[in-house]
Amino acid sequence: MSTDKITCLLNWHATPYHLPLFLAEKLNYFTEEGVKVAILEPNNPSDVTEIIGSGKVDLGCKAMIHTIAGKARGFPIKSIGTLLDEPFTGVVYLASKSGITTDFQSLRGKRIGYVGEFGKIQIDELTRYYGMTPEDYTAVRVGMNVTGAIIRGEIDAGIGLENVQMVELEEWSVQQGRSRDDVRMLRIDELADLGCCCFCSILFIGNEDFIAQNPQKVAAFMKAVKRGADYMFAQPAAAYELFVEMKPHMTSEVNRKIYQRSFRYMSRDLKNVQRDWDKVTKYSKRLEIVDDSFVQNMTNEFLTWPMEPESAPGFIHPTVDTGVLAKCPCSSHVAVPVAIEA
């Protein structure tokens, strides 16, 4: 790179679960650790693994399954830590409008929206798992507009996150005079018997050449982010207000609720969880994204603090009151943003 700054490309535009990264910048943790960092937001999230793999950007964020798939496609990328652990991911729908129920077979004849090709691969595999075929539903690539496409009636359901798209749809439903409970999800991990939603864990990834040539910078970057995460866990409401200073649109009620919902998924020690990587590697083989020769592209070598024990299988962190909603200046006004890719 021609700049002396570390470039870090987000998996989509800034969203509440990116807070530790922005807090590291806001509180000068990057500077104190001896690195300069430029946080970038992509025009097209589907390009992130390729851009980082090409060396045009040093580091970034991406979902675990995309990180594995990018490596399988020949992009030299590696995970150096975890930002968001196991957010619930699945087929999101409005019960009152879609005709979809808790029975997967109710997806027959429906229009199912997906972000990128791996969403389509997942749904196709699930239809086979349940004795259906891809011809039994209509796949609609909606990109980042899953929430908007459901609201506009362009699709009956779409793949989304419990802590993002479901929040957006719940707030919209309330505006329409309906219950938040009208928004439902068929969780992919439960449908596919995976035992975790770790395939959509959001990771810190990097270009392998950059990592190999700049280990001290990478370690400093991760230490600064860890300090940001520590501040967030210690003072969740104060941390969010600092985020709002950097990104004023984050003051909206829906973004505050996304932060509230995302908080329990935020990684406390930033480690790549070996158990989750094993499960997602196995799932990726099942989806035929990788073959038996695949070597996991992750490391925890740049995390220089004690690691917490792995949680018990199936453990779900309880919801924490972050205090951010009490500080919301927007009362009942809700602006539903564009949906966010993993």
UniProtKB/TrEMBL annotation:
Domain SsuA/THI5-like: 16-239
GO molecular function, one term: transferase activity
Classification via InterPro entries: NMT1/THI5, SsuA/THI5
Family as reported in the entry's similarity comment: Belongs to the NMT1/THI5 family.
Its biological purpose: Responsible for the formation of the pyrimidine heterocycle in the thiamine biosynthesis pathway. Catalyzes the formation of hydroxymethylpyrimidine phosphate (HMP-P) from histidine and pyridoxal phosphate (PLP). The protein uses PLP and the active site histidine to form HMP-P, generating an inactive enzyme. The enzyme can only undergo a single turnover, which suggests it is a suicide enzyme.
Subunit details: Homodimer.
Protein's recorded name: 4-amino-5-hydroxymethyl-2-methylpyrimidine phosphate synthase
